Amino acid sequence: MSTELLAWLLPLPPLLVFIFIILFTNRSKGLSHSIAIGAALLSWLGSMVVFFRAIQTEHLGANPFTDTINWIPTGDTWLQIGVWIDPLSAATLFFVGWTVLMIFIYSVGYHNYGQPQGDHDKKGLQPHGATVADEHGHTHVVPSIEPMYARFFAFIGLFAFGMYTLVVSDNLLTLFVGWEIMGLCSYLLIGFWYQKPSARAAMIKAFLTTRVGDVFMLLGIAYLYSAIGSLSYSVIFKPETLQMLAETPAIGGLLGLSAAGMIGILLFIGTIGKSAQWPLHVWLPDAMEGPTPVSAMIHAATMVSAGVYMVIRMFPLLSAGSEHGLLTPPMMLMTVIGAFTAIFAATIAVAQNDIKRVLAYSTISQLGYMIAALGIGAYVAAAFHLITHAFFKALLFLGSGSVIHGVEHGVLHTGEHVDPQDMFNMGGLRKKMPITFLTFLVGGLALSGFPIFTAGFWSKDEILADAFGHGHWAVFIILAFAAFITAFYTMRQITLTFLGKSRTESAHHAQETQWTMTLPLIILAVFAIGIGWFGISETFPIIGGIIPNFVHEFIGSTLEEMPEALPFNIWPLIVSLVVALGGLSLGWLVYRNQKAGAEDPLKVALGPVHTVLRNKYYFDEIYDRIFVRPAYWISDTFTNQILDKGIIDGTLHFIARIASSVGGILRNYFDKPIVNGFGDFVGEGVKKVGRNLKIIQTGRVQQYLIMALVLAFGAMFYFVFTFLQR
Amino acid sequence: MIPLSWYLIFAALLFCIGLFGVLVRKNAIAILMGIELMLNSVNINLIAFWRYRDPDGIAGQAFAIIVFAVAAAEVAVGLALIISIYRRRNTVVADDINMLKW
């Protein structure tokens, strides 16, 4: 099969699975997950084949695998769609294929396949556990199977379709289609337990917040189409097109931007929404209401990465017109937003107690890293970090799901009322859940950039080195500080969750999860370490060059001009070592002796600052004041009460009252006296005449005869006299 | 020869007697008898006019015979009606048979 045809077919199996489960197999849980995993496996296999063919192809960046067909006729031309496999999409396919497959398998265990039906489980609520009796007659409460098991696999199938479509597409239109399909799936899956009010609120928040970005992105796409008449990458990335766009002033000449700058900024706002960058970051932490595989897949590994993927993909456009290393306006904006988000979200993560929320803020922060890296032109470093982050953050999320599952098992066993997601209720899980512990440790170390071994170190180091090497001092310092905080909160999380002693009975009775959950963890852990070795800078002392810097060679070749590898500099390396190790040890020192029920030491140390961080800088409250309440005010008080009920209804009521009084006049002075009067007069008159005449009808035949006789005589006399007078 | 006017005067008197009977008698059968008198006075007129004005034709005699037939049929129907009323209401007085009114 040709690579192009294979790329066409990649998104298909998950879509078919979605349709198939919805229509046919939704009653059979086992069949539904079997075909879903089968489809994920097919797409994974296809992705791997495409990926390995791609890395064996010379000059793939200049001559990507591509194939187009005409889709929608637009006057005398066509909107074309097609597939486009260049090094960037091949690498993305690699991590998408792996993480999607792992998460599909993990979902089987996460939703308690093989466990009994719950005692009181309802559709739209988390399973609450089932009571079973063992052979000795003791009853136990064990986890129960998810009531809407098949629906979950249908949704993630549709999601996988969206992601594959986005990655293989060769134009912004189908990319946007995939982007929106994922937005829909994200909405549906955040609200998967739709009977929980918090889940409902979170799904609406996620949908509306990302929609803000998407509208701007659509504007950008429309602008691009009106400017060059095509949305295909092959047209957009032509040097002539880029130069033309860079030299044309934007519509209205806004802020002296070029058309390329304007389009770039609009597209980037789409990324701000999708990748949860400040100021549209608020939806992602709330999205943790969804099931954990969803948090891992949609809100860490693939969908939020799609935002970054899109800006990496559009990098030639974003950087069009950049000369002598100067940043273009979109890049400047990306640098500022990315760096700010990186530090901003990291500081919030420090003060969160929910194991998944820490990871959610960590995701926002790491995505900010990538955006900032791309902003300063570190194309390869951004893509590299995107790939490593997808693996280790999926690993961390799945690990946290496994932890929650283990603690929930303890909660069901002991019957305690504790929050199984609060890290302060955990502790000492390393002995109960060894596989989860080891893999989570690998993920956590990768996230904090533990030197040499982990993938996160190499990608993060490359970003820092790029910032340092190109002289972006502010970015360098901010990102280094963010890396320090990242290491600190990661170690805080690991220490609170796994180290020390159990702080609750539930944690004491936690249990390792089944193989369908641990196997994906192990596989992802291998990648969280190993993937970094393919991106070691060749100028790195001692170990540089043992494995060629494959990532740089391969992904860098996507661009027209290969970005040059930076010469090695010791300072960023030292800084990155210091922040990673310093943050990790500080986290361990502060939290190693955390007692049950004790205050968070950070709260004691930071005081009111901690409160601000804990409340996420009050962004939810601020947005509530600025946007949500005014929106309610406009729709309820203004539109409903004043405009609709007051003005529109008032006008209508006024007209109605006039019409009513005109009608009343007509009725009283025309209809009743004249029209009705005439009708009544005729009727009454006839009645009166009849009443008066009826007395002559006596029923006696002889009287009739007399009358007839009298009349006959009368008539006779009349005629006789009339004719006689002639 | 007796002049034609005598016959006509006699027929008119007979007609008036019949009419008087029809108008004033209470018994329905007597009313029917009055009607017979009126029909026969007409027959006398028909025969008299035939004899004095057109003795060669037969139209006068034919009309008289048709009137006999009609009178016989009328008496048959009338008597049947009267018997029917008598069976239902036990009376043959015309003034009591006044159901056909408002």
Can you describe this structure?
Chain A has 29 helices and 4 strands. Chain A is mostly helical and 726 residues long. A two-stranded antiparallel sheet of chain A has the order 1-2. In chain A, strands 3-4 form a two-stranded antiparallel ribbon. In chain A, a hairpin with a 2-residue loop joins β1 (65-74) and β2 (77-85). The model of chain A has no long low-confidence stretch (mean pLDDT 86). In chain A, 69% of the residues lie in helices and 4% in strands. The relative contact order of chain A is 0.07. Chain A folds into 4 domains: 1-111 and 146-170, no CATH class; 172-321; 372-613, no CATH class; 621-686. Chain B has 102 residues and is mostly helical. Chain B has a single domain (4-93), classed as Orthogonal Bundle (Helix Hairpins), CATH 1.10.287.3510. Chain B has 3 helices and no strands. Chain B has helices spanning 4-24, 28-53, 59-89. Chain B starts with a helix and ends in a 13-residue tail after the last helix. The A-B interface holds A 694, 697-702, 705-706, 709 and B 19, 22-24, 31, 94-95, 97-102.
The tally of structural domains of chain A comes to 4
Residues in helices of chain A, as a percent range:
55-70%
Q: What order do the helices and strands of chain B follow?
A: HHH
Shape of chain A: elongated
Structural class of chain A: mainly alpha
CATH hierarchy class name of chain B = Mainly Alpha
Largest sheet descriptor of chain A: 2 strands, antiparallel
The number of helical runs of chain B is: 3
Number of strands of chain B: 0
Structural class of chain B: mainly alpha
- Unreliable parts of chain B: none
Physical arrangement of strands within the biggest beta sheet of chain A: 1-2
Number of helices of chain A: 29
End-to-end Cα distance of chain B, whole Å, is 56 Å
Tell me the helix content of chain B. Answer: over 70%
Distance between the termini of chain A: 125 Å
User: In percent, how much strand structure appears in the residues of chain B?
Assistant: under 5%
Strand content of chain A: under 5%
Radius of gyration of chain A: 38 Å
